Amino acid sequence: MPKPKKRGSNHQRGAGGQSRNVQPFSDEDASIETMSHCSGFSDPASFTEDGPEVDEEATQEDLEYKLKGFIDLTLDKSAKTRQAALESLKSAFSSKILYEFIMERRMTLTDSIERCIKKGKSDEQCAAAGLACLLCVQMGSGIESEEIFKTLGPVLKKIVCDGTASIQARQACATCLGICCFIVTDDITELYSTMECLENIFTKAYQRDRDTNGVSSTHSTVLHISALLAWTLLLTICPMNEVKKKIEMHLHKLPSLLSCDDLNMRIAAGETLALLFELARETDADFFYEDMELLTEKLRALATDGNKHRAKVDKRKQRSVFRDVLRAVEERDFPTEMVKFGPERMYIDCWVKKQTYDTFKEVLGSGMQYHLQSNDFLRNVFELGPPVMLDAATLKTMKISRFERHLCNSAAFKARTKARSKCRDKRADVGEFF
């Protein structure tokens, strides 16, 4: 005869027999609780899943309660706990607009980020730098963001220039330094100082072939790429007289990076060249580049590269990018792209706008569309005007059910499979499919 179940056993004990009445952020179980809560933020879509209507106010309170716990855990003794808390905050900040919540705790967050960058190891420093970017994106350009940058700027510069720090940490700090400076600084002196810091990093790549001391090794290429892209972003907001100086300084040196073994460095150099030519022609309609023939020859070779020792995917990506770069340099043309977010559309019609969009997309990831709809700062950067306010009825009609979304994804998958099957031939030369 089966034993009767004990009353209340399902309520008092969870899976594995562990008691469920432990405080969620107690010192003894902080690490376990952090990891369990982190999973809730692993997918930004989890905030907007289909399902029955819920009390938004209660949901917001629950979210803020979790975030407060994560902020406290950034000061935990365990490095793994601190890193998990930073990653969870990053996921939340990229998926939601939390201006008011952050405004009340900006100094606490800033102190936590500063502490993690100064005293943490490589992975923790990368997570803290990424959170600093999202913190400034959330706050936008204002006095509060300037205070954050005044605190974190010197720390970021120190890590970027520290040859003993890990390459990954320096790379993350270089990206963070460029983005935060782009967002907050109204001080032209600080802008020039930050650009000089980044220049000191990526210009070492110019000397790669002549370097005999190993300073410009392949290992540091990722750092040079991040510094170059961050510097390029800041160049887009420089006064025209400074732009002219930078073009004169770098336009003759950048083509040397097109011969780099690293695909991402070649692409970064090519897109930077296209942007420099675009800015140069804006400042001077009669702009003339002396080595144009040699440069276009290099770009054309990269746009039609068929070297067998390179992977097919890399070759296709390179050819796709450099066809656009060649058109920009030779014909002053840019292939306009359209970005959809909600009921709105944004057209990327120049290299400056593309560089800015790509940078923030890298930081926000899948939350980019949400921020384009709701973030006042980003909408101001891309000249989208104030956020479009839609009533609940309109939003409900626009929302696609899970089943319809599944059908759309299935149809897109079949179409993509058919298109790719036609391109199996090695001679096919097409762009990437998304």
Automatic annotation (TrEMBL):
It comes from the Eukaryota. Signal peptide: none annotated. SUPFAM superfamilies: ARM repeat. Residues 1-59 are annotated as: Disordered. Transmembrane segments: none annotated. The keyword Ubl conjugation does not apply. The keyword Metal-binding does not apply. Residues 375-428 form the Interferon-related developmental regulator C-terminal domain. Residues 50-59 have a biased composition (Acidic residues). Residues 1-10 have a biased composition (Basic residues). Keywords: Developmental protein, Differentiation. One of its GO terms (cellular component) is nucleus. It holds the Pfam family IFRD_C. One of its GO terms (biological process) is cell differentiation. Residues 34-330 form the Interferon-related developmental regulator N-terminal domain. Belongs to the IFRD family. Interacts with PSIP1/LEDGF. PANTHER family: INTERFERON-RELATED DEVELOPMENTAL REGULATOR, INTERFERON-RELATED DEVELOPMENTAL REGULATOR 1. This is Interferon-related developmental regulator 1. It comes from Aramus guarauna. The lineage of its organism: Eukaryota, Metazoa, Chordata, Craniata, Vertebrata.
